[in-house]
Amino acid sequence: MFAKFKNWLKHHQEAGQLIFEQQTKLINGRQFTIRRARFTDISSIIRIEELIYGTAPWNANAFQIELERDHDRLYLVTVYDGQVVGYAGCSFNWYKHESHITNIGVSPAYQDQGIGANLIQILKTYAGNHGYPRMTLEVRIHNLRARKLYERLGFHQTNIKSHYYIDNREDAVEMEVKLQSRGENT
Ligand SMILES: CC(C)(COP(=O)(O)OP(=O)(O)OC[C@H]1O[C@@H](n2cnc3c(N)ncnc32)[C@H](O)[C@@H]1OP(=O)(O)O)[C@@H](O)C(=O)NCCC(=O)NCCS
């Protein structure tokens, strides 16, 4: 136990900020930029959440706290024409050897073009290349569209968490994908 804690502490002392190099992706002839989310993106992310869910599940303060944790969180945004059109977040727990998708959303006008899949694929590759053997997430049991997308990206169901969501007591499906190391996830 103590040895594991020492490894965890060593990793975090050495880790510093998670580094992410900006990427571009051509989708249907349009060039999208995928970069790390900035504090100034929070209002755009919340606007997308309002469009998707009606009200944003996370407030600005929650996103601010997440973005501040730049040693074990990676929040990405997809930008088109200077506008944030999608976002996804991932937490990294070195002690549990687990990466976990915390949040993902794509502005309704930009859905069904591969932006969500691209964000998850980037996070999978990033986590695999940083030595994380698996990635997990939770999804509402009735969100069949998101579940189908995750399955297409290799995730499989591992558990059901009963009444997990506090707003409507909906069950959560826990999903997991095994990751491969550098060069094997693309
Ligand atoms: C779930 C969500 C993030 C997916 O994002 P997205 O950008 O629409 O997802 P993608 O476009 O990558 O994939 C969706 C479909 O588009 C299709 N698609 C992928 N690339 C495409 C392309 N270039 N052109 C047209 N269609 C494409 C895929 O086949 C996929 O269909 P399938 O999964 O039914 O087979 C988005 O729908 C969303 O924000 N939903 C509301 C919030 C939500 O449910 N979040 C998840 C919480 S766990």
From TrEMBL:
Pfam families in the record: Acetyltransf_1 (PF00583)
Start and end residues of each N-acetyltransferase domain: 32-180
UniProt xrefs under Gene3D superfamilies: 3.40.630.30
Domain of life where this protein originates: Bacteria
One GO cellular component term noted in the UniProt record for this chain: ribosome
PANTHER family, A to Z: L-AMINO ACID N-ACETYLTRANSFERASE, N-ALPHA-ACETYLTRANSFERASE RIMI
Listed name of the protein: Ribosomal protein S18-alanine N-acetyltransferase
Taxonomic source organism: Limosilactobacillus vaginalis
Source taxonomy: Bacteria, Bacillati, Bacillota, Bacilli, Lactobacillales
Gene encoding the protein: rimI
